[in-house]
Amino acid sequence: MENKEIQEELIRALHRFGRLNTGQVMEMEGLTQGEFFSLGMLRKHMEDHPEGMYVWELARYMRVSPPGASRMLRGMERKGFIERSVDRSDRRNTYIIVTVQGHAAWERTAKRVEQFMDRVTGRMGGEDLRTLVDLWNRLSDIIEDEQAKESMPC
């Protein structure tokens, strides 16, 4: 296959993959992908820090701006998945904790995601999926590296 043809096929495959609604499984339980991953991070963090996590910490872990994290957290708070409280020693900081309802929503969603991924893995096969993930990560590294080169001043 000519180099130009495979490049065009790659672009089409990337576009098709980007259009897949992988969050559909999570949305069935009332969580967006961002909310699901945030609750997962918060739950993990709270195992060692029961007082919760700062908003700025969550934003850093998610690689989003603090205002972006706050917008998402407002929605999660309205749904009853998290509670926020001001740090008494530094009122500029806000703690986030997962509520009982948030734990339950995450558990239901994680179970549904696991079942979905079991079906996908079963159809694809573990070995082929491992190869795909390894190649996808390698491709992502190369693309990120080339994008960084493009953004460097000459």
UniProtKB/TrEMBL annotation:
PROSITE patterns: HTH_MARR_2 (PS50995)
One Pfam family hit: MarR
SMART domains attached to this UniProt entry: HTH_MARR (SM00347)
All residue ranges annotated as the HTH marR-type domain in the record: 7-141
Molecular function as annotated in GO: DNA-binding transcription factor activity
GO biological process entries: response to stress
PANTHER family: HTH-TYPE TRANSCRIPTIONAL REPRESSOR YETL (PTHR33164:SF43), TRANSCRIPTIONAL REGULATOR, MARR FAMILY (PTHR33164)
UniProt name for this protein: MarR family transcriptional regulator
